[in-house]
């Protein structure tokens, strides 16, 4: 049984913070030497954790870092919906009726 060590990940490019991971020392050293791929060295880690080892990017920061376009698109759709609702509540017939009442 190889020793478990705590390693600090790189700083996350999204939030600037880092994280700690517990890994087997032998495998970590083998991975650092390039003897093992990250998936071979740390099969017990999640994809997010392996990504943190490689780039420092947190799983929760991944979407914000990689996906600004879908987020913008969502906001655009929401904005369009709001505008549409405004047009919907603007009922020209109401105004016409008010004008007739005034006469
Ligand atoms: Zn982060």
**Low-pLDDT runs:** none
Q: Compute the number of structural domains.
A: 2
Strand adjacency order, main sheet: 1-2
Largest sheet: 2 strands, antiparallel
Strand content: 5-15%
Mean pLDDT: 80
Question: Which percent bin holds the helix content?
Answer: 55-70%
Q: Could you give the order of the helices and strands?
A: EEHHHHHH
Distance between the termini: 93 Å
**Net shape:** rod-shaped
Report a brief summary of the structure.
With 103 residues, this protein is mainly alpha-helical.
What's the layout of helices and strands?
Layout: E1 4-8, E2 20-24, H1 25-33, H2 38-41, H3 47-55, H4 59-66, H5 68-89, H6 92-102
Bound molecules: zinc ion (ZN).
Architecture overview:
With 103 residues, the chain is mainly alpha-helical. The protein folds into two domains: 4-64, no CATH class; 67-102. It has six helices and two strands. It has a two-stranded antiparallel ribbon. The longest helix has 22 residues, at 68-89. It is rod-shaped. Bound molecules: zinc ion. Zinc ion is lined by residues 12, 14-15, 17, 58, 61.
């Amino acid at each position: 049984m190889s020793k478990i060590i705590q390693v600090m990940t790189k700083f996350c490019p999204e939030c600037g913070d880092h994280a700690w991971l517990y890994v087997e020392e032998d495998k970590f050293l083998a991975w650092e030497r390039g003897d093992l791929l990250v998936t071979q060295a740390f099969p017990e880690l999640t994809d997010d954790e392996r990504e943190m080892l490689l780039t420092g990017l947190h799983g929760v920061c991944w979407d914000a870092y990689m996906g600004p376009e879908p987020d913008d698109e969502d906001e655009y759709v929401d904005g369009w919906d709001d505008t549409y609702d405004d047009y919907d509540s603007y009922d020209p017939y109401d105004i016409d009726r008010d004008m007739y009442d005034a006469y």
